[in-house]
Amino acid sequence: MAITEEQRLRWMELMSEAVAKELPDDGLLRQRVIEYFDWGTRIARDVSADPVGTDLGGPGRTPRWGWGGLV
Length: 71
What we know:
This protein is mostly helical. The protein contains two helices and two strands.
């Protein structure tokens, strides 16, 4: 798909608007959801830029979000 950084940021903008509109008024919850989207979209952008068949290796450690922050 060759996702560009501009496309990724636009998607993040739209998702941020949806989070603000649809999720409970809980700043920490909203922050964690946006952090998760940011992490995932960076992977999607990176993976989509590589030619088909390229060994991308492992995605690395999957972050775990909690009320105390990223753990």
